[in-house]
Inverse folding.
């Protein structure tokens, strides 16, 4: 069978789904359903605007923290720890055995280490001199 291989800087939702759909089907057939569930914890201003928070998901008995953001004016008050703790508690309630995340921010790295995460891998340096670090925490 012949294929055209094309390098592109365009990825539409349809293009992504053309790859994601069969890959998820393959993985589910091989490893079973992932039971993926989104998880969001939001920091809301007095007007109800979302100004930060945590976004992730649970799947295959693990929590993945994809995004965690605290606005500058709210840093240093333990909010990151509270968000992580809330996400971890929800993950435990969903039957998870641990959590994992990644960061390239040295300050965030120190925060995650403070809250019990351990480094499981590193890559870099990246173009700005920073490294991307993967961490996990077993419950």
């Amino acid at each position: 069978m012949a294929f055209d291989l094309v390098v592109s800087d365009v990825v539409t939702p349809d293009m992504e789904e053309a790859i994601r759909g069969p890959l998820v089907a393959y993985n589910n057939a091989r490893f079973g359903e992932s039971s993926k569930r989104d998880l969001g914890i939001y920091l809301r201003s007095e007007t109800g605007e979302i100004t930060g928070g945590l976004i992730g998901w649970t799947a295959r008995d693990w929590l993945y923290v994809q995004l965690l953001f605290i606005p500058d004016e709210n840093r240093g008050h333990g909010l990151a720890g509270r968000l992580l703790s809330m996400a971890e508690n929800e993950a435990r309630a969903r039957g998870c055995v641990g959590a994992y995340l990644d960061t390239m921010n040295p300050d965030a790295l120190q925060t995650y280490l403070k809250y019990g995460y351990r480094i499981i891998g590193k890559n870099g340096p990246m173009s700005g001199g920073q490294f991307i670090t993967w961490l996990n925490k077993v419950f």
Q: What stands out?
A: Strands lie at 37-44, 50-59, 62-69, 98-103, 118-123, 132-138. The chain has a mean pLDDT of 97.
